[in-house]
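Re: that backbone. Tokens:
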């Protein structure tokens, strides 16, 4: 970050995370760059554990905090995307590679059903209903346009995210603030700092210093997932003929990394 990166934004991808379907990276960067207040400093790609972050927040904090939280949701025009790509019936979901395991496919469908009843989704529906008829017609006439949202989060997820390079350099890793020591995990160290900031300064101002948001297209399907060979490989995969390297990898998955 200090010597090799000269771009205004970086996309951080951990070795065991993957994109599950097409994701609007370019549009997200445009939304961040065009924000006159530069309030959006970090955008995390949603995953299973934070797909319904609105509900997570609601379960921890009172009504007044939740009402303020809802006003902090950002819906940039750069993330009103056409082409019928995003949303519950978008191409991004319909063309994604489905899990081989029937059990995991059932989990995916159950997650979508749960999401439709969540505050994360209901709040978006209420917002859409409150908008002008022109916007509703634009999004619903042929389903080609869909408004994605950025949900504020009080947790810095190390999962795949886009962040301002200067935010990492000048704030997150700045030794002056003593938030993340060299070699420390950002997620573990920074999230408690964010919560204390909100407790001291109030939700909006305390969160504003960190500017963390989660991307959601309100389809009920995650953008990113975890690469886990043990749970991904089916019985058929385990039983197929394999070469020496395959057996070595399978042995590590079953018995740990000490083999």
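Recovered sequence:
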């Amino acid at each position: 970050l200090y010597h090799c990166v000269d771009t205004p934004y970086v996309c951080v991808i951990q070795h065991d995370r993957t994109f599950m379907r097409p994701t609007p990276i370019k549009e997200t960067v445009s939304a961040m760059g065009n924000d006159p207040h530069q309030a959006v400093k970090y955008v995390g790609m949603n995953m299973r554990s934070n797909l319904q972050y609105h509900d997570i927040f609601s379960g921890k904090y009172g009504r007044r905090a939740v009402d303020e939280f809802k006003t902090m949701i950002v819906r940039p025009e750069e993330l009103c995307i056409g082409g019928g790509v995003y949303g519950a019936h978008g191409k991004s979901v319909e063309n994604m590679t489905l899990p081989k395991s029937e059990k995991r496919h059932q989990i995916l469908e159950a997650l979508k059903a749960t999401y439709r009843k969540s505050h994360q989704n209901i709040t978006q529906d209420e917002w859409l209903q409150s908008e002008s008829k022109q916007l509703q017609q634009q999004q619903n006439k042929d389903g080609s346009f869909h408004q994605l949202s950025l949900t504020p989060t009080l947790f810095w997820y190390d999962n795949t995210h886009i962040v301002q390079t200067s935010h990492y350099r000048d704030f997150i890793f700045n030794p002056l603030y003593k938030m993340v020591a060299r070699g420390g995990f950002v997620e573990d160290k920074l999230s408690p700092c964010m919560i204390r900031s909100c407790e001291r300064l109030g939700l909006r101002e305390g969160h504003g210093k960190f500017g963390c948001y989660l991307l959601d297209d309100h389809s009920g399907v995650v953008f990113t997932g975890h690469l886990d060979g043990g749970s991904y490989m089916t019985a058929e995969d385990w039983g197929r003929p394999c070469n020496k390297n395959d057996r070595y990898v399978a042995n590590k998955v079953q018995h740990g990394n000490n083999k």
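The beta strands are 9-12, 17-19, 42-45, 80-81, 146-147, 149-152, 161-164, 212-216, 224-226. The longest helix spans residues 186-201.
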